[in-house]
From TrEMBL:
Belongs to the UPF0677 family. This is S-adenosyl-L-methionine-dependent methyltransferase. The keyword Transport does not apply. One of its GO terms (molecular function) is methyltransferase activity. GO terms for biological process: methylation. Exhibits S-adenosyl-L-methionine-dependent methyltransferase activity. SUPFAM superfamilies: S-adenosyl-L-methionine-dependent methyltransferases. It holds the Pfam family LCM.
Amino acid sequence: MTDLDEAHCVRTAGDSWDIIESVGATAVMVAAARAVETESADPLIRDEFARVLVTAAGAGWTQLANPDLEWIGDDEPGRRAHRVAVDYQAVRTHFFDEYFTEAAQRGVRQAVILAAGLDSRAYRLDWPAGTTVYEIDQPKVLQYKSSVLESAGAAPRAARQPVAVDLRDDWPAALDAAGFDRTQPTAWLAEGLLPYLPSDAQDRLFEKISALSAPGSQFAVEVFSFDATNERRRAARRARWARMQRLGLDVNVESLTYREGDRADAARWLTEHGWQIHAVGNRDEMTRLGRPIPHDLLEESIVSTLVRARLTPTS
């Protein structure tokens, strides 16, 4: 495995993937963490669909979703580090679950999940009657999720509209064709997405969301902080990928992400374009929810900001 500053991005313009390939595999990793959390003794979130979505991807992924973490063996530091990673996924899931719940309480009746992956919120959240959830992602990813959940007898709790389109293409047109109403407020979500977009594509994404948003719309986004000079964090990443290789899973997230130095700060961009934001660091949110990162693991853990924004009416 390679370091953040040594890893060369393997992405190309117009690349696509299946659920266990490239960026698709990261969706399975995240779902596996939700499965582990759901089956823990005192789960912060419950995603009863995560395990079935993961196990359908293969034996190695099934082991990754086991809550006992037996696949890590007697590597106690590895077990602790993996538990922190699961805690992070649980906390961010909780943050964005609450975001959608509060948006619904404000009367928002359409949601758009960008790069939806194996997100199961359309199936597990208590959506008010009349809510439509649009899920945008690669065609093969959406097909996989729909097929697996249909076979499991799962039914969405809102009107679910898959929108099979790449976010680097004309996704607003595809969203419109799926029935999106530009005159109604929308709750947007970009969870775990931004690092997989080139910086210019991120800017275009924000511009299009703003153009499509009626007053009262809301936007939630996860913003990561990468520090290539942090030796402990780099070593922790190498160790994590090495552990996954034991399961026959070779996923190097760093090689799938874009790390241009000119990437716009999401919170600042939104503020400058008429959005009122509330931002919290992941470490503060993890502490608030009873999942603090152990002090000796702080330097090697994920650093991110969880942002909620609301579009204010223009005078």
